[in-house]
Write a structure and sequence with these properties.
The structure is a homodimer of 666-residue chains. Chain A has 666 residues and is an alpha+beta fold. Chain A has 17 helices and 38 strands. Chain A folds into five domains: 183 residues, Molybdenum Cofactor Biosythetic Enzyme, Chain A (3-Layer(aba) Sandwich), CATH 3.40.980.10; 50 residues, Molybdopterin biosynthesis moea protein, domain 2 (Alpha-Beta Complex); 85 residues, Molybdopterin biosynthesis moeA protein, domain 3, CATH 2.170.190; 80 residues, MoeA, C-terminal, domain IV (Beta-clip), CATH 2.40.340; 197 residues, 3-Layer(aba) Sandwich (D-Maltodextrin-Binding Protein, domain 2), CATH 3.40.190. Helix content of chain A is 24%, strand content 28%. Chains A, B: One of its GO terms (biological process) is Mo-molybdopterin cofactor biosynthetic process.
Chain lengths: 666, 666
Amino acid sequence: MCHNPEWGGKTMSVYLHDIPLPEAQQRLIQALEEVGLESVLGVEEIPLDERALGRVLAEPVWARLSSPHYHASAMDGFALRAEATAGASPTRPVILQVGEQAVYVDTGDPLPDWANAVVPIENVEALDEQDIPAADARHPLKIRLREALPPWTHVRPMGEDIVATELVLPAGHTLRAVDLGAIAASGHTHVRVSRPPRVAILPTGTELVPVGQPVKRGDIIEYNSLVLAAQVRSWGGEAVRFPITPDDFEQICQRVQQAADMTDLVLLNAGSSAGSEDFSARAVERLGTLLVHGVAVRPGHPVIMGLIRRSQGGWTPIIGVPGYPVSAALTGEIFVEPLLARWLGRRPAEPLEIEAQITRKVTSPAGDDDYMRVVVGKVGNRVLAAPLSRGAGVITSLVRADGIVILPRGVQGLEAGAPVRVRLYRSPAEVEQTIFAIGSHDLTLDLLAQALSAHQRRLVSANVGSLGGLVALRRGEAHLAGAHLLDPQTGEFNIPYIRQYLPDTPVTLVEWVGRIQGLLVCKGNPLNIRGLEDLVRAGVRFINRQRGAGTRILLDYHLERLGIDPAKIQGYDQEEYTHLAVAAAVASGRADCGLGVMAAAQALDLDFIPLFTERYQLVIPTVYYESDLLAPLRVLMQDENFRRSVQGLPGYTVENMGQVVAQLPQ
Amino acid sequence: MCHNPEWGGKTMSVYLHDIPLPEAQQRLIQALEEVGLESVLGVEEIPLDERALGRVLAEPVWARLSSPHYHASAMDGFALRAEATAGASPTRPVILQVGEQAVYVDTGDPLPDWANAVVPIENVEALDEQDIPAADARHPLKIRLREALPPWTHVRPMGEDIVATELVLPAGHTLRAVDLGAIAASGHTHVRVSRPPRVAILPTGTELVPVGQPVKRGDIIEYNSLVLAAQVRSWGGEAVRFPITPDDFEQICQRVQQAADMTDLVLLNAGSSAGSEDFSARAVERLGTLLVHGVAVRPGHPVIMGLIRRSQGGWTPIIGVPGYPVSAALTGEIFVEPLLARWLGRRPAEPLEIEAQITRKVTSPAGDDDYMRVVVGKVGNRVLAAPLSRGAGVITSLVRADGIVILPRGVQGLEAGAPVRVRLYRSPAEVEQTIFAIGSHDLTLDLLAQALSAHQRRLVSANVGSLGGLVALRRGEAHLAGAHLLDPQTGEFNIPYIRQYLPDTPVTLVEWVGRIQGLLVCKGNPLNIRGLEDLVRAGVRFINRQRGAGTRILLDYHLERLGIDPAKIQGYDQEEYTHLAVAAAVASGRADCGLGVMAAAQALDLDFIPLFTERYQLVIPTVYYESDLLAPLRVLMQDENFRRSVQGLPGYTVENMGQVVAQLPQ
């Protein structure tokens, strides 16, 4: 079944072989050229109405009619011969007889054959008998002019807009609203556009369940087909979603054949790797020709490309799309979009690119083109790109991404501050309206993000802990940092740390929320945990926050006070970056307890043992505190509705929200 | 009927009163606030499928489920306890019993409760009895590892992507393909989105005929409703197009009432000015409240805004849209788009802006915000914005526009070279791929534009005549100029002029086409015109080309040779800028003859009297001739298909196309 020796002789030991991206694209195009599928698939003639919007012209539009198709008046006024006004002046007016020498015309009316100019109605005196002002300004007996007109004044000559036979729009143009007007004006009632490619989307995998069905452990909600279908649709294709096919080679082959027979492109989702249930490559080999198995891109390298022989003759290309959601979506962007563009006859999507500086050191596999998702914001005069999760399974990294940085093959990484080009997913205007919050995580930041979005601001928050936030402010990489750093000496929050980490930066320290920290334990508290003393008990597995997190400092402070040796706490070295991640670790059974806020416990239905109250404040460089960018934040902190929504989270108090605690350095 | 004294007491003398744009927008918003129509009109719950694309979230999406919702293997391999691999090394491997200590898992499979790490299948030796390699790598008896694993290696912990209760997407977000995936992953099957506003579009005007009906003199093809409907659709609304209503006040009132009763917004097209058949303002006054009549924007100032009282109670806003197509489309952009954005709860469109230099002096009415359409291209290192026709009737000026320059109120004009901000309609990538051709007009440039568009290049041509083209090259404002300048002394084309006008610029002169110039006359040549001698005959009205045009130089050369005094030619002072415009002048009866190319005569079904053959050449600064930007031009000039298409135009020869005539200065 497996004819290509390159993939190995034994089914179980086949492994894909990555080739560079341009080579993979080239192989596909070449194969499509060989079977005559490299350009527009077909032409449709459709009526000229608003449904033509977004369609791509398959042929140029040449004007059939001129527009205007006659000499038209450009004003409401009187058509006349310019020669008849010769010599008119304020002191020596000319009087013309209406009917013989002048005729009233509305804007757009055709000029009488004998006329060659229009005088606007407001520039004449309309006269009746005895030269008294006319009762009806449009139908006087005479008009008096006090200015001479050059010929063709206030006339739209025939063809002013469009001359018959002119090119109105070239083939390959994607129709916009105004284009439809110009096409109509040039005498067309229909447009000839490229036929939208039909794309079959075949999700496969025994572990998949459709959206809307209850999920149990091990089930994976099948949403790649949704994302791929929406991508196809947004790129001008028609998506045909097939039901989930289980991991059964014969069933998969049958479905692929059926899909290939009825569409222009098959996207076979998952099974494209080389695992035990990865049947895609074998299916392509059985039903046609395997062109590529493995492309040197991350994420998404186990891409398959091939051609399926149609039952009715001819070929249908197939792309084996990797299963991880980020890989699947990027495979769409990298391979499917350009192919649809080719078949539609339009230009491929060209994302806007901007220059930015990467905020932290990143590494990259040297053999691959590495598609790194980043958030982008402008802090001061620098445009910054902060890398998001690199995991191929983290679809929120694509949702949150403002753009992609491609680390090309041969590049093993970048130092912090290195210049990069970002392919933007958002408009530069949105980037300008982005507030970068780097620091301690708090659930109220989600509420703030939601509230700010109604004020044309986007809050992008990176969770690096309170100290990390101060460091980010020092580096000029954030507009604000949430912090709740307890000073063991003074019992004060944040100020001593700001003095130490930001000695030279004028900052405004603003009260945000008071919140209760405590231990998150399983529902019913089966291990009967009551306080930090219990963490050293045998069989109690702790999940910690990362070094530099305010919660971690709080823990260490109290452990020291209580004389507890952290080395004796099982799991002290296991670190998570957010309260919710700690809660998730407990909820999943990976740990028995962790320190965090009450709201996180409630979110995942855990029990909560309250231990300490603390002050969570916003550290804002004063230049940003006073900026227009942050104006909506200042407004929201005083907004009763917003405060109520924060107060609604368990364990939070807002009575001092917005109060300026200190201006530093004093 | 007309209650507002500001519009004048007598129906015929009412005239609109322009107010500044921000004031007009403010009046509308305030009125909408008073009647409770200032924000999202309603919420719909729709299933999570690809039709949700482009819809706007009416509420934030909070995660219901975590993703993954269990600890999942991130690789195909064996789940195990990390502790069991402690001390493993290449020389001291560890062997684990499959079943008890290790279990095969595919990517995405849940980890057994007792496991806390996964070793990829390719990193183990699968063993059977007597430690021989296992026949089935997934089901061996034992596995041998030569490396210790930290806990949670190759595991996607529960909540890695999404933790239940987290904010997935804020309200007001426009859904993209990946968003649908994240919403599905977070446990939703439906989304709550804003209801699309319904917009009624009412074309009015006795002179209008629908697209597709034969037009006679005075008829205007009604396509504004098509453009407005397409705009509404592209901005997320639903358009309801009404049939054309004639200029009858009662009928218009009836239709407006009907439209207001069934939609959220009425666009009443035309009749918004103050002419004799401009009923819109009066209709609004009768049926509700007139808020604004006249906004200080050009084109498009006679805008009307008001509220119509619904029969069933409540109010529907109405916008009276001016009739000129450019005015109508810009009214859509300026007033309708922001209103729809508000009703959908999304951000208004924010066009990308770039800096450019205006190519020529422009004037502007000081009292208005003036929306000037421009084409944009990059010539050398300068981004240039060349103004297009300012006529409100010229829809092709919007179709061809790469963007808009707003000359704000108070600005009376700009000098050539002044910096401007352009609101782009195209991507900056397209701007980079724009070839600016300024110079003599030739019909073959349309064919070239069409052919170049298939090579990812956009040809933008401005017709300023051959000499104007050389001047543009000298100013660095074009990549190439078409020229056919006959030197009376030498009989040579172009070279003497290039030496004079571009003494210091290295240029490559390339043969383009040979073409026949002659007199364009009415079908049947009723005045029996045979040559230039006939132009001085009484009753023969000539239409000329502008000074500096090659055709004009040709004419003057031959007139002088023949001893004909131009002052004796009627219409010698009437100038047009293109061959087709000359042809249109003859076809319409505005003139009896003009000098031009044969193809222009044929295009408008005129007779043609061939007089001279001439050489039309391309003058290209050598730095551009050799550039990547112009590479497709060099290819096309040698392309048989392209040459054939040019040869197909009457009166053209292409045998020397692409030949380099000279490199200057020599």
